[in-house]
Amino acid sequence: MTDVIVAGGGPTGMMLGAELTLAGVDVTVVERRPSAELVGSRAGGFHARTIEVLDQRGIAGRFLEAGKTYQGAAAGSAMFDVSDFPTRHPYTLGLWQNHIERILAEWVDELGVKVERGRQVTGFVQDADGVDVRLADGATVRASYLVGADGGRSVVRKAAGIDFPGSEATQTKLIAEVEVGEQPPVGVRTDESGIHGLQVMEDGRTFRVITTEHQMGPATEPTLDDLRAALHRVFGTDFGVHSPTWISRFSDATRQAASYREGRVLLAGDAAHIHYPAGGQGIGLGVQDAVNLGWKLAQVVKGVSPESLLDTYRAERHPATARALKQTMVMGLLQQQDARHVAVNDLMDEFVAMDEPRRHVAGLLSGLDVHYDLGDGHPLLGRRMPDLDLETPDGPVRVFELLHAARPVLLDLGTPGGVDLGPWADRVRLVVAESSGPWELPVIGEVTPPSGVLIRPDGHVAWVGGGMGAAGGGMEAVGGGTEAVGGGTEAVGGGTEAVGGGTDAGLHDSLTRWCGPA
């Protein structure tokens, strides 16, 4: 018997395994591949918010050292500059998935996460108390919860009977790593069918090839002959491709699970959503799913929070991911090069020359504008906490350093000693600190500094004390009026001791909602 079984040991599954382990939950990650080494480069890349998430766990540097950063994010032919965004990581990281998985595998091994490779989930039966998970080798393992992080063709999602609505594919592409008999033209070529590209890989011998098929390919694994035919149609030659490391076919189909949970079974990553891979969103979306779900599932497993906390996973991640999926659909259209799409691209280039459209789209592409609906209030509420430099009695510290243990943090930025956490003292880390710099959010701009902030383990703000609204105006959060917390309206002015003195029932209710009842 284990607390949680995670089906799938890709980036999403490994990240979720790490989050649950940090929270003290017994988790087993089951991965069908026999080795941690991923054959071929596959997908790759992280945007700013995903790098921040890794920074919150103290491991961003490992990925940055292995990859290459780029100033900006692409959408079609347009580049969206994020260098002026208030983040320590105002860039995109280029890093292939095989390196991403290697680094994550090293980290989860350090944490002691149990990963069983060469084993595959084939089905399950759940009851009121747990899930009996069937494996391909005939074994059955009992767990309190099962999470399907087993990709777009998820066995777990299908067995759970969860609908997967969305848009059908309109085109297919082949992607491969091969050796060549004649030197190909490295770079990108576009025609009316779409985009085609060749790139030399790290070994200097292998080439990564992406080409759009003239007709929709079948839902089967492609062959080397399929790749040769596609290349010959576009380039007039197949460059003598041979010795493929891997060949795959993907489409622009976009789908999202109607529900992220069925009883004691949940979905994350590609099992919950698939999309056209342009823009490098896929791995990052899965990592962000994992850090949103991990601490919530851990609190439910440990009996700290009611099972209803799991409902907030879908409520938060589904709309945030839906926005990103719409963006990938647009990017897929912008890569087509017939006269109509060229005209749209030209218009997009004009838009991105304007600051507001550029900031809006760059916020979406980077993930820095993600806003979970936790009710009305300060602009920080529901958004990622800025990685501010703080001065504490123990010395200077960055906000993200306080999140390395994946525990909630309450920042007391008002009168020292103004907070008594009471029954939450063993669940929430209280940090008395000062911040002298500006409080600035991507896209929104500078906001009124609060007197206190409750930060969830995923880095999103659950409660704000003090001034409300943008810098220079807005509503007052503490001492009167009403404050929406977790979707409801809570009276402010009575209850738990507030940051900086006074009283704030909103803090009490937020602690109850996100950190478990007293």
Description of the structure:
With 518 residues, this protein is an alpha+beta fold. Helices cover 27% and strands 27% of the residues. Strand 9 and strand 10 (131-135) form a beta hairpin. The chain is globular, with a radius of gyration of 24 Å.
Question: Strands, helices and their partners?
Answer:
Blueprint: E1 2-7, H1 11-22, E2 27-31, E3 44-46, H2 48-56, H3 60-66, E4 68-70, E5 73-75, E6 78-80, E7 92-96, H4 97-111, E8 114-117, E9 121-126, E10 131-135, E11 140-148, H5 155-160, E12 166-167, E13 172-179, E14 187-191, E15 194-200, E16 207-212, H6 224-235, E17 242-251, E18 254-256, E19 261-262, E20 265-267, E21 273-274, H7 282-301, H8 311-334, H9 339-352, H10 355-366, E22 389-392, E23 395-398, E24 409-412, E25 429-432, E26 440-441, E27 445-446, E28 450-455, E29 461-466, E30 482-485, E31 488-491, H11 505-515
Parallel strand pairs: 1-2, 1-11, 2-8, 11-20, 24-25
Antiparallel strand pairs: 3-7, 4-7, 5-6, 9-10, 10-11, 12-18, 13-16, 13-17, 14-15, 15-16, 18-21, 19-20, 22-23, 24-28, 26-27, 28-29, 30-31
Please count the helical segments.
Answer: 11
Question: Could you state the CATH homologous superfamily of the largest domain?
Answer: FAD/NAD(P)-binding domain
Q: C-alpha Rg, in Å?
A: 24 Å
The overall pLDDT average reads 89
Structural class: alpha+beta
The helix content, as a percent range, equals 25-40%
- What is the total tally of β strands? 31
Give the overall shape.
Answer: globular
Spans of 5+ residues with little confidence (pLDDT < 50)? Answer: 467-503
Quickly count the domains. Answer: 3
From the N-terminal CA to the C-terminal CA, the straight-line distance is 29 Å
The CATH first-level class of the largest domain comes to Alpha Beta
CATH topology of the largest domain: FAD/NAD(P)-binding domain
Label the CATH architecture of the largest domain: 3-Layer(bba) Sandwich
